[in-house]
Amino acid sequence: MTIHWLAARGRALLFAMLLPMGNPAGVAAEESTVSAATHWVPRGDYRLHVWEKYVGSPAGKPVVVLAHGSATAGKESFDLAVPGRKDYSLMDRFARAGFDVFALDVHGFGRSTHPEGYVTTEGAAEDLDAVVDAVRRERGVARVHVIAWSWATQYAGLFVSAHGDKVDRYVSYAQMHADSPDIVRRRADLELYRSRPWIVVPRDGWKARFRSLTPTEVTEPDAMEAFADAAAAIETRTSTGPQLDMVTRLPMVDPTRIAVPTLMIHGQYDDVADTAGLLPFFVRLPNPDKRYVVIPRAGHMMHLQVGRRAFFDAVMDFLMADAPR
Predict the structure, then answer these.
(1) 3-class state of residue 80 by DSSP
(2) Which end of the chain has fewer CB atoms surrounding its CB within 10 Å, N or C?
């Protein structure tokens, strides 16, 4: 992997364009057997589904918690099974790299409790807090790594701001801002979001984010079809609460309150994340251990697109920054 770093004078700014070359660093053999387990975490009236994967024993491993966006649940987002392929599950990649990795379903998503009313960003942050506490107790660790994708950068950002003592390193993946092209587009549907807390997304509707501002060659059709199948099967109705929050309340996260080491990362073609909108946020992060990375050949669905290996390399390099070399 070739990394080109650009250091900005007068502040701790790291900017990288990553090009994949060879196998991702630190990843164990592809044939390592990955084990899985289902957990349930109570929070008030809700039961939160948590999916876990690891190789061998989970004991003594560093812990990663994956937080999904506003589309579909944790397992479907991060442990996607693509027929004939073994390289699309982000959870398997982390498990084979030596992590104990968990993916939650926020209430209103996947297998977790579905309320009748709106799902809010603050409620999702409380879900993440409950899951992190449960994982810390179960695995006997003081802190976990948190990787948040899309809308999760908002609820995880709130969580990390309030509970930095529970977080080792934080990855903000595909973070949106108020002037993101996709957020601007969604404002046209504001009255729909205000009038209907739930909608039904047809199967082909789940393919839209692979294509938005992203060239066709960046996405492999088999992965897009597998994601559409998985999302349509588990999300029989979809909450509009996250959309309502994103089109009316951004910015929701104060960067000066995120005190932990932070990686901000997004794809070259992402329709919610771009340097013009996010570098001001990055500069205000107070911890000097911070990185801003753009991955070529990737859009909003980066971990399922051509640039996914470079994405994984960049995240691994960041998470392992404190490990003995």
Answers:
(1) coil
(2) C
Contact between residue 193 and residue 243 where contact means Cβ atoms under 8 Å apart: yes
Cα separation, 303 vs 190, whole angstroms: 29
Three-class SS state of 63 = strand
Alpha carbons 69 and 284: distance in angstroms, whole number: 24
The pLDDT tens digits along the chain (325 residues) read: 223 333 332 233 344 444 333 344 444 456 789 999 999 999 999 999 999 999 999 999 999 999 999 989 999 999 999 999 989 999 999 999 999 999 999 999 999 999 999 999 999 999 999 999 999 999 999 999 999 999 999 999 999 999 999 999 999 999 999 999 999 999 999 999 999 999 999 999 999 999 999 999 999 999 999 999 999 999 999 999 999 999 999 999 999 999 999 999 999 999 999 999 999 999 999 999 999 999 999 999 999 999 999 999 999 999 999 877 6
Q: Could you tell me if 102 and 63 are in contact, meaning their C-beta atoms sit under 8 angstroms apart?
A: yes
Class of residue 279 by CB neighbours under 10 A (exposed 0-12, middle 13-18, buried 19+): middle
- What the block records as the tokens of 161 is 């701001």
Distance CA 246, CA 174 (A): 14
CB atoms < 10 A from the CB of 257, how many? 15
Predicted model pTM: 0.91
